[in-house]
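Appendix B, example 12.
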Amino acid sequence: MNRVSMLIGLALLTVFGQSSFAEACREIHGRAILYSGDAFLEIWHVGTHHTFFVVDEESSELIFRYLHYPKSDNQALFADFTICPTERYKQGASQPVIVKRIRNAHVVARRGK
């Protein structure tokens, strides 16, 4: 019985430990832009001051289905993004995410470009 309790405790610690480092996946309406100077791919959560940056190749490839080089310098992708933060929210900092899905995509020319 003691061994079973210990295994359950370790399992719970693992689950709760992982969830304390990041938030649950959620859908946001955002604008994705590729900053070509440093190849930084960022998503702004429309209506907020919060931004996210993509941390994996699959997420980048998902976004690049809509933003095409060399036009990507002058494009913005507005869409409903299902994102999964990989770190906890820190006010004033861009948050790393994995993009799981893009819906209602609309590519527009960026202003001032």
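The chain is about 25% helix and 40% strand. Helices lie at 2-19, 57-64.
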